[in-house]
Fold each of these.
Amino acid sequence: MTRPESMHSDNSIGQLTQLGLNIYEAKAYVALVGRDSSSATEVAEVSGVPRQRIYDILASLVERGMAISRPGRNGTKYAAVAPSNALAGLLEREQKRLNELQAVTTSLTTALGRQYKAGQEVSSPLEYIEVLRGRQAINARFAEIQEHCKKEILIFTKPPYAMPPQEDQNKEEVISTLKRQIVARSVYEYSVLTNEETRRAVELFVRSGEDARFVERLPLKLVIVDEEIVMFAMEDPIAGRTELTIMVVEQKQLAEMMKLAFETMWARGDTFEEALMRLGIGEVSEQPS
């Protein structure tokens, strides 16, 4: 069973370390407080401080004003300074140290604050341009942009597809966007309707609220989001049309210019029904109940 005085000593040692003493200094001081005076050996035995450290620990307490030394014929004795005086001195030193730290912090805040502000005003001329390669990276970035779309998304859709229209993930993402009341307008090439799977996927998008137009040929793959972000594809001159390189540009003026091009192609396009009639594919399937 732990003795009450031992518990008090442990608490006192912990609190003394909060005032800036190390653990050995705190243990030695508590040991000194319990006696009128003690030799270094006695302090070591009572406190548990290693004997090879006890002399420098006691010297440190004397220097801090926590103890006094009394040289005598039988060797030097050590005694604790009264806690009211010793602890007041410790607190004063800690407050002084905190004041110094406060001054250093204020100085650093001013100096680094100026540097930080200057750094925020400097930007790389290309930091708003992002280049993506590979279908996985392209799909992930497009999904992120589509998820954060606030009001409008305009798309030129043409092969090769990073994610074909008929894939379940693509269907889910498009329908999720439409459910958020986003204005979604897409221009497709007629070829998307010649394949039954892609035709049914596009029909699902149209029935879910997407506005669609169809043309013979689109100049490039393009996405414009909220008149701020532009994604467009560039064919790899070496790998050809099977490899995709996508550029993402966050630049309002470019988005406005590309939207003019989009509106031009949109005005030329056929509706879903008109495109089916042009291709002689037949009647549009009934809207699911």
Amino acid sequence: MGIKANTVTTKREWRQIYAIYGMEQWQTLLFLLCHAIFFSLSSVVFLFYFDPICAFFNSFLSLGAAARFAAGFSGAVLGISAVCLFFAAGNFFYSALPLHYDMAQRMVGSVNDWSTVKTALDIGCGRGILLNAVATQLKKTGSSGRVVGLDRSKRTTLSTLRTANMEGVQEYVTCREGDVRSLPFGDNYFDVVVSGVFFHTVGKEYGPRTVEAAAERMRVLGEMVRVLKPDGVGVVWDLMHVPEYVQRLQDLKMEDIRVSERVTAFMVSSHIVTFRKPSQHIAGPGEVRLDWRC
């Protein structure tokens, strides 16, 4: 087992993906679309009622000739805002479904030999796009392995089992509810551990850029390393905080650390990080470190 540089992406229609997995965080998409429509209608109102609006600006603000400029500028801002919001909604939908599926295939392709994998873990599995990609790969290679999906919500794990059934990989999938900060598994348990666009959500109650939130993310990364077997492979796709993960993995003396090219997801930068856990972790001269927790 090892890390493979080249990956192969299996294309799939977004309608097929949506039919199986639905839309997580649909409230965000609806929020963006509603505001985009509101700003679009407002800009149309400014266009068709430009002269009355100019008169309104002039009567209340006494701008004189500048009233037309103020009205035109306001209408332009509304129009540009509508375009930006429609673009954001489109990117959110693309990131949540087609891109998520494609990145899951790339993450699966980062592991060289799935036929030797007996146990795998998906941290923060959600509705199972990455989880089922792993299970499908196990099925294709004829492996007798199993993949465990861990999520904080029991309701989500039930949805994930339904999607695994729809993908025809239910016999390869197990779902568990648990705390990602303290994984309910023993040390050196899994051959492969993956996680897709999840780590950045850990510690969000402290704020995304706080020291406390960063510490929580590092704690989950440490747990990921802890449950990974020696010579096991870890694959993380996440947003924004990837340099932190790379630094922590270097501190933990992980090997074969690789970072993919930048991919825009959910309007921000994202990367895939792959690494391999060494067979022995040497913390210093003659000292073998057994505790992987952060």
Amino acid sequence: MVQTLDFFTPIVDDPYTYGQIAAANSLSDVYAMGGLPVTAMNVVGVPLEHLSLEDVNQILKGGADKVAEAGCVLAGGHTVQNPEPLYGLSVTGLVHPDQLITNAGAAAGDLLILTKPLGTGILSTATKRGVDIGSLSDRSIALMTTLNTPGADLAKAGLVRGGTDVTGFGLLGHLGAVARESGVTAVVHSDQVPPIDDMVLSLIDEGCVPGGTKANLEAASNTSFAAGTPDSLKLLLADAQTSGGLLLAVTPESLDQALALLKEKGAPCAEVIGEMKPRNDHDIEVL
């Protein structure tokens, strides 16, 4: 049995969409461990003077619909008054102990697969600042509401040695944890890391960078960057994601099967972005 709890304040204006994103984000932790969500409970904070009952109902409906999509049972929850809206889930999942994916299971020689492109933090910040990002708003929402269900399928097939999902600490933060816990150094080929769109890098150059992303880059002090790596690329790798993709370490022998399964299950992407090598003085080397 695996359990997780996550919630956050709104990152979109539409309450139903907010509920969907928050639920997908909460469910992701179970999928990242190779589990199947079984039950979930709502965690809700409501500012009574600022949020209507209809808005609360739409948030809960968005979450309930996403939980149902996951084949999970919404068993109840708890609501409190709070100065700002909060929503998320406590999720219980099941995974066979021999199939459990942890951030301590990667080994030298493993290849790294990323299942969603990066940039939701940048795009959300641009939207909050009134920058017209066109259809990228819908693209970002579609990614954040996409469940990371392939994690359970990959674990059941025995194709993953270690992994995590990429959320608030960005790719560098979460990959750094995998490298440290696994006793290896991660090598990232920056030209293989997909942004949601090239416009994301342009927005970074224009200063549309959330504070969390900047803090993530500062925290990644044990990461080495190749000479000449643009600041925009460093910030993309550190971008704080909401309901981001899976980051998986697989053996070279399992790579083709893993990529085929990700394609079959509809993962937004399945990019090989690097590999693990024997531990040196760095958590991550960005080439």
